[in-house]
Design brief:
Number of domains: 2
Order of helices and strands: EHEHHEHEHEEEHEHEHEHEEHHH
Radius of gyration: 20 Å
Subunit structure: Homodimer.
Number of helices: 12
Oligomer: single chain
Helix content: 40-55%
InterPro entries: IsoCit/isopropylmalate_DH_CS (IPR019818), IsoPropMal-DH-like_dom (IPR024084), Isopropylmalate_DH (IPR004429)
Distance between the termini: 29 Å
Function: Catalyzes the oxidation of 3-carboxy-2-hydroxy-4-methylpentanoate (3-isopropylmalate) to 3-carboxy-4-methyl-2-oxopentanoate. The product decarboxylates to 4-methyl-2 oxopentanoate.
Shape: globular
Strand content: 15-25%
Keywords: Amino-acid biosynthesis, Branched-chain amino acid biosynthesis, Cytoplasm, Leucine biosynthesis, Magnesium, Manganese, Metal-binding, NAD, Oxidoreductase
Pfam families: Iso_dh (PF00180)
CATH superfamily of the largest domain: Isopropylmalate Dehydrogenase
Bound molecules: nicotinamide-adenine-dinucleotide, 3-isopropylmalic acid, manganese (II) ion
């Protein structure tokens, strides 16, 4: 059949709760909008450890490679906090990124008009914000060798991680950033710490050279990562597309999420290399984690997961209209005043995960009538 293959990996904590709301939307799109998906659901993270003894099975990696797109929830469970590093739930997402070569993580931070007051920053600072952080996700200090914890002869321990970037690794992620800038506001800010790190110096040189060779129509600037963190809070709208390495991108995107009101609002897409027949592996996930502090209580904001699915429809399934329908429904629901706890004003009675998901689906139905 010509049904697209979607691999759904809910994971741990709030992952399954927010994924459930997306699957209701998928079901309706199948009935009402002719979107035919062949959905496979698998365990990852602590949920997989509990049943299979590993954070992700090789079989699930294979399914991810065969799928047209992967929709990921979140992994991480305090119950597994003390096991060996290679057995932790987080290995599931790290292996998926690495084995599918998902090197470019697109993390848009967009402020919905209705939420300008939900940010901890002043409304005038965040109103209209629409930036994109492009985070490299298969290199840098997350994967560099050597790594590990070793015991020295005198009994002292030494924990080691190594920041490594090569020319092609920098070039391919910078290319994604420049291409995105061309359809955004045509500006890229490249972020590293070239003042202390050779990998950062190389990063800056490679981005500068690529820009001169192929993207001189795009405005390029450079910023040190510590300054960038400060500038994101001081005046976030000075940015358009930010491109940076794995660790800085992780930190700066959590920071950027609070500009939008909540970590529970930010979706992401992680794209792999283009393969034969123009096919490209891609995984979609909220930037938040499993939120153990609120898991199982119907408190989580499902919008980051729902908006991640909208990105999936847009980038992997060429369904712009359905993606826009979801985003419009989310925007209208927020305009109507409905809030989960993370984005509710003090004194306002919030709704739960299910009610927020149901409201988005109902609004989608209203919009197509
Ligand atoms: P977290 O993102 O899970 O939570 C941080 C804070 O934000 C918590 O107070 C949480 O309640 C809140 N929050 C997060 N998502 C929310 C949502 N949708 N609605 C409302 N509130 C939300 O980060 P953490 O607590 O540092 O990490 C918990 C676990 O998640 C760890 O095991 C970590 O490794 C893992 N993690 C996984 C991913 C992933 O799967 N990609 C991402 C980040 C963290
Ligand atoms: C994220 C998470 C992951 C990361 C963890 C869970 C490995 O924080 O997706 O942002 O650090 O990349
Ligand atoms: Mn993170």
């Amino acid at each position: 059949s010509d049904a697209k293959k979607l691999l759904a990996l809910p994971g741990d904590g709030i992952g399954p709760e927010v994924m459930r709301e997306v699957l209701k939307i998928v079901h309706w799109l199948g009935q009402a909008r002719d979107l035919h998906l062949e959905i496979t659901e698998e365990l990852v993270g602590g949920a997989s450890l509990a049943v299979h003894g590993v954070p992700i099975r090789d079989e699930v990696i294979s399914l991810a490679k065969e799928a047209d797109a992967v929709l990921f929830g979140s992994v991480g469970d305090p119950a597994w906090a003390h096991v060996d590093f290679d057995k932790r739930p987080e290995v599931a997402i790290l292996r998926l990124r690495q084995e599918l070569e998902l090197f470019a993580n697109l993390r848009p931070a967009k402020v919905f008009d209705a939420l300008v007051d939900a940010s901890t920053l002043k409304p005038d600072v965040v109103r209209g914000l629409d930036i994109m952080i492009v985070r490299e996700t298969v290199g840098g200090v997350y994967f560099g060798q050597p790594r590990g914890i070793e015991t020295l002869p005198d009994g002292t321990k030494r924990g080691v991680n190594t920041e490594v970037y090569t020319t092609p690794e920098i070039e391919r992620v910078a290319r994604v950033a420049f291409e995105l800038a061309r359809v955004q506001d045509n500006r890229v800010c490249s972020v590293e710490k070239c003042n202390v790190m050779e990998s950062g110096l190389l990063w800056k040189q490679v981005v500068t050279d690529l820009h001169a060779r192929e993207y001189s129509d795009v405005q390029l600037s450079h910023m040190l990562a510590d300054n960038c963190a400060m500038q994101l809070v001081r005046n976030p709208r000075q940015f358009d597309v930010i491109v940076t390495g794995n660790l800085f991108g992780d930190i700066l995107s959590d920071l950027a999420s609070m500009l939008t009101g909540s970590l529970g609002m930010l979706p992401s897409a992680t794209l792999g290399t283009v393969q034969a027949a123009g096919k490209r592996h891609a995984l979609y996930e909220p930037i938040h984690g499993s939120a153990p502090d609120i898991a199982g209580k119907n408190l989580a904001n499902p919008l980051a997961q729902i908006l991640s699915f909208a990105m999936l429809l847009r980038y992997s399934f060429n369904r712009e209209e359905d993606a826009a329908l979801i985003e419009k429904a989310v925007s209208n629901v927020l305009d109507s005043g409905l809030r989960t706890a993370d984005i509710a004003a003090p004194g306002f009675t919030p709704v739960g995960t299910e009610a927020m998901g149901a409201a988005v689906l109902q609004e989608m139905k209203n919009l197509v009538q």
